[in-house]
C-alpha cells in the first residue's frame, strides 16, 4: 500500500471514510473549499498568527504563502486585505493550486495571485515580500537549506519569516515512531520531519535571525485544535498524578509545598511533556537580517 497513492488520492479516499471524519475536519481537508476557509479563518491558530503578524510587522502589506495546499491561509490573508502570493507545487483542484484558483474566483479576490512551484524553485525577485509564511510545508522540503534560502532571498530586509507547525523529531528512532504513528503516511508515504536544530540552522544559514522558537506547548498555534483550557487541565492532571506517585514513594511529606517544589526543581519535572507526542510541531518567528 505504501507509496502507491498520491496525496490527492489519499485525501479523496479519507473524505469517504467515517474513521477519518475528525481528521478531515481538523486538517481542513473537506471537499467544500469555502468551509475549510471559514473554519481556518475562525480558528484560534489563525487568530494567534494574525496577532503575531500585526505586532511584529504592523506595516506589512504583502505575504508570500509557500506550500499553501488548498489555500486556507492564502485566502484568509487575502480576506484580511493583504496582497497574497500563493505558491503550491500540487496542481490539484481539490487540495492544491487549482483549489486556490477556484477560491480566488469564488471570493473575487484581485489581491491573490497563485503559482505552481516548489519553494526551492520560486523565481521571484530578491527582496519582494514583507512576510513569508509557510504552514506545515517546511518539513516537506526536498532540500531544506535551499527551501529556506529561497524564502529569505525573496523577503525584504527586516521582513518577517513565519514557519508554522513543522514536525520535529529528536533522532532517527523518534522519526520512525512518528512516521508509524502518522495516520496518512501509510497511504502516500510523503511525510517527513527534521530536528529542531536542522530547522534553526537552515533558517539562520539562509540569513534570517530567529526571534522566537515556539516549541509544541509554547503556543496554541502548534497545539490547536486542542484549546488552552484542555492543555491547562492536562497540565494539572499530570501534576496531580506525579504528586501521587511521589507520595507513594516518599510518604505524605511529598504533599508539602516545599518538598514538591524542590522535587520539581531537582528532577526538572515538566508536567507537559512534548516527547509523548509523535512528531510534535514547532513554529519559528524570524526576521531577515
Ligand atoms: C501539509 S500540507 C500544508 C498545506 C497548507 N500550507 C496548509 O497548512 O493547509 C503541505 C503542502 O506542502 C506542499 N509541498 C511539498 N513539498 C513542497 C516544497 N518543496 N515546496 C513547497 N511546497 C511543498 C505540498 O504540496 C502540500 O500542499
From TrEMBL:
User: Is Nucleotide-binding found in the keyword set?
Assistant: no
Report the PANTHER family cross-referenced here. 2-METHOXY-6-POLYPRENYL-1,4-BENZOQUINOL METHYLASE, MITOCHONDRIAL (PTHR43591:SF24), METHYLTRANSFERASE (PTHR43591)
InterPro entries noted in UniProt:
Methyltransf_11 (IPR013216), SAM-dependent_MTases_sf (IPR029063)
Q: From which source organism is this entry?
A: Flavivirga jejuensis
Keywords carried by this UniProt record? Methyltransferase, Transferase
**What terms describe the molecular function in GO for this protein?**
methyltransferase activity
Q: Which domain of life is it from?
A: Bacteria
Write one Pfam family the protein is assigned to: Methyltransf_11
Q: What is the lineage of its organism?
A: Bacteria, Pseudomonadati, Bacteroidota, Flavobacteriia, Flavobacteriales
Name listed for the protein in its UniProt record? Class I SAM-dependent methyltransferase
UniProt keyword Amino-acid biosynthesis, yes or no? no
Q: Among the record's GO biological process terms, what is one?
A: methylation
Annotated ranges, domain Methyltransferase type: 64-162
Residues annotated as transmembrane: none
Amino acid at each position: 500500500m505504501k507509496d502507491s497513492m498520491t496525496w490527492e488520492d489519499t485525501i479523496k479516499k479519507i473524505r469517504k471514510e467515517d474513521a477519518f471524519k475528525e481528521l478531515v475536519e481538523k486538517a481542513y481537508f473537506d471537499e467544500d473549499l469555502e468551509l475549510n476557509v471559514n473554519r481556518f479563518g475562525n480558528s484560534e491558530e489563525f487568530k494567534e498568527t494574525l496577532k503575531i503578524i500585526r505586532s511584529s510587522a504592523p506595516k506589512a502589506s504583502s505575504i508570500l504563502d509557500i506550500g499553501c495546499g488548498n489555500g486556507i491561509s492564502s485566502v484568509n490573508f487575502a480576506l484580511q486585505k493583504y496582497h497574497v502570493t500563493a505558491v503550491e507545487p500540487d496542481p490539484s483542484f481539490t487540495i492544491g493550486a487549482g483549489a486556490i484558483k477556484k477560491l480566488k474566483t469564488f471570493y473575487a479576490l484581485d489581491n491573490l495571485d497563485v503559482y505552481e512551484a516548489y519553494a526551492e524553485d520560486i523565481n521571484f525577485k530578491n527582496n519582494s515580500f514583507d512576510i513569508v509564511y509557510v504552514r506545515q510545508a517546511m518539513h516537506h522540503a526536498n532540500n531544506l537549506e535551499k527551501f529556506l534560502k529561497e524564502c529569505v532571498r525573496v523577503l525584504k530586509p527586516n521582513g518577517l519569516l513565519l514557519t508554522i507547525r513543522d514536525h520535529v523529531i529528536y533522532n532517527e528512532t523518534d522519526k520512525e515512531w512518528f512516521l508509524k504513528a502518522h495516520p496518512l503516511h501509510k497511504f502516500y508515504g510523503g511525510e517527513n520531519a527534521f530536528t529542531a536544530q536542522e530547522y534553526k540552522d537552515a533558517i539562520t544559514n539562509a540569513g534570517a535571525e530567529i526571534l522566537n522558537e515556539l516549541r509544541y506547548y509554547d503556543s496554541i498555534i502548534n497545539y490547536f485544535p486542542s484549546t488552552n483550557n484542555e492543555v491547562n487541565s492536562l497540565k494539572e492532571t499530570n501534576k496531580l498524578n506525579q504528586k501521587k506517585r511521589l507520595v507513594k514513594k516518599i510518604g505524605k511529606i511529598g504533599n508539602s509545598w516545599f518538598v514538591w517544589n524542590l522535587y520539581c526543581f531537582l528532577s526538572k519535572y515538566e508536567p507537559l511533556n512534548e516527547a509523548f507526542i509523535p512528531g510534535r510541531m514547532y513554529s519559528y518567528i524570524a526576521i531577515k537580517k
